[in-house]
Prior knowledge:
Shape: globular
Helix content: 40-55%
Strand content: 5-15%
CATH topology: Rossmann fold
Number of helices: 9
Amino acid sequence: xxxxxxxxxxxxxxxRCPGCGREDTVLCAACQAPLYRRTREPPGRPLGLPGVLxxxxxxxxxxxxxxxxxxxxxxxxxxxxxxxxxxxxxxxLASRWxxxxxxxxxxxxxxxHPSRHRERGxxxxxxxxxxxxxxxxxxxxxxxxxxxxxxxxxxxxREQRAANTGGAFVVPEPARELVAGRWAIVVDDIVTTxxxxxxxxxALLHGGAxxxxxxxxxxxx
Length: 221
């Protein structure tokens, strides 16, 4: 049924590559290429090295810099609702994790605030996490709740970003049993300073997780 719906959607609203504008392709091969440049590189950050990772995160992996067609694709997905982009973005994420990921036995995601979810109609990080979990054969669970709507991180400086996300996330009581003793991997679309991922990791550790890693499609600055 889902496959039929996608075919119908492609007929009614043919996809257009957000990077180059090519018609009849969600993301063309040339614009996908930057997503795979780091696939065979060693891990982006040594496990557990203090001072270079978001707070409470033992490993952070990402696919590409937040620029060019990668940026165009994420903007089209996140802000224009081109949800067909989830599949190629998630495939790149899964490929990077297979090449460089260490540990991790449960995927979760950085949740948007409920009001933002209503505005967009979906949570892009949740969709990515579920698609990546399917590719990696790992369980995925809704483990985090965003308690407050924060200001968009790109509009803030480094110190302001850390303050903006402090206390924003919590592991709700029903999810604590799922988190307890697990090595969680938090999925997001873009990471800048890592303040958001750090806040999620802190919440997961307080909720009983044994360790927290993270992955994102792109890294900015």
